[in-house]
Amino acid sequence: xxxxxxxxxxxxxxxxxAIIVRFKHNGITYPIKNLTKLYxxxxxxxxxxxxxxxxxxxxxxxxxxxxxxxTLQQLFETKIELNQKNGVxxxxxxxxxxxxxxxxxxxxxxxxxxxxxKYEDIMNILNNFKxxxxxxxxxxxxxxxxxxxxxxxxxxxxxxxxxxxxxxxGSMQRENLSKRTNHNYTxxxxxxxxxxxxxxxxxxxxxxxxxxxxxxxxxxxxRYGELNQLExxxxxxxxxxxxxxxxxxxxxxxxxxxxxxxxxxFIKNAPDGKLFNVPRGGTAGRVFHRLLMKGKIExxxxxxxxMHDTRKLMLSIMVxxxxxxxxxxxxxxxxxxxxxxxxxxxxxxxxKVKAYNKYWDYVRNNIVENNSELLVETKSNNLSNLEKLxxxxxxxxxxxxxxxxxxTERDRLF
Length: 414
Fold this sequence. Notes:
Layout: E1 7-11, E2 17-21, E3 24-25, E4 28-29, E5 33-34, H1 35-39, H2 44-59, H3 72-85, H4 91-104, H5 106-109, H6 119-126, H7 134-153, H8 177-180, H9 185-195, H10 204-220, H11 224-227, E6 235-236, E7 241-244, E8 255-258, H12 261-269, H13 282-294, H14 309-320, H15 326-332, H16 341-344, H17 349-363, E9 367-370, E10 373-376, H18 385-397, H19 403-413
Antiparallel strand pairs: 1-2, 2-5, 3-4, 6-7, 7-8, 9-10
C-alpha cells in the first residue's frame, strides 16, 4: 500500500506511469480515475492533494471530473455524424432522430452541458407526453441513453441519470378507434381511399408520389417506416409483387406482398432508387393528417388517427366483414405466428394475394354490406340475370361469398 490512502502508481501499456485514485465520498464509491491524464499529477503526493480538492468540490455539489466541452445538442450532433459515417443509421433514421430531438428535447435541455442535466429535467420531458404515448417516451430514452452512457464511460459524468429512467412497458396499446372517432371502420378506410386523388397539399413535383405513398399505406397497411425505404429494385413488376428485404423490415425477414393496381404505373415509370420522398416523422405525419382532413374524418376530443391505425382497419375488416381467417389476416400484416401455430400452419403467397384482393375490392366499394351479408354491387342495371349469375359464381369461387351467401343471391335472381 502507498503512503497516501486510495492513491497508487500504475505502469501503463506504453511504459509510462500514471497516478490512479480509488475513493469513496459521502457514501458514494466513484469509478477509478487517472489523475495524471485528468489533471497532470506526476506524484502520489500531487494526487493526494488533488483528491482533497475533488472531495471539496463534491461537497459543494460540483462535478470536478466533467470535461465535456459541449452542450447536449453538440453531443447529439456528434453522435449523428459518427453513426452516419459508420453506416449505423440510414438517412431516414437520421432524419427521424433529428426531427424528434429538435421537437421534444432541444428546447428544454439541448443547450445544457450533460453534467448539468438532472433526473427531473428528463422526467419533465417525458411527462409532457400523454399517458398513451409510450412509444414517444421510449424514443426520448433511446435518444439520450447512448449519449449519457458514452460520457459516463469517458469519466465526464459522476452520475448517469438515464440509468434511473425506466422504459415504458404495458401501456403501448392505444385507445380503440371507436373511442377516438364516431366513424366506423368501413367509413374511415373508404373515406381515406376516395380522398387520395384529391390530395394536393404538396409541391407540384411531390403530389403524385405522396398520393402513391398514401395508396400503399391505405391498401397494404404496411409499416410506413418500411414503405419509406422501398426502392424500385424491390419491386417485381412482372409479377406485380413487392419483395421488401430483411434490411428494411421490422422482423428482419423478407416480406412479399402484392402491388395495388393504383400504384403500378407509378412504380413502372419511377427512376431507380427510393420510390417515395416522405420521410418518417413530421413529413409523413403531416401528409397523412392532410388526407384525414380531405376525407373529413373527425376525431373525438384530442384523440388522433395515425398511419399505424390502417393496420388495425385492414385486419378488423378482413376478419369481421370479409370472413377471412384471422391468422391469414395477421399473416398479411407480417406478424410472426406464436406457439405451435408457427410450426404447423403455413399460408402461401397466393393465399395472401387472394386476401388482399378481397380487401381491396371492399375498400373500392365493389363489395357492399346489406343485412350482414356481402352482396355483389351491380355496376349496371342492364346486366342480364345470366350475367349476374356469372358474377356471383366468380365471387364465390374467389372466396368473396360464402356458399350460403351465394345461394341466397342466386335464388333472388331465379
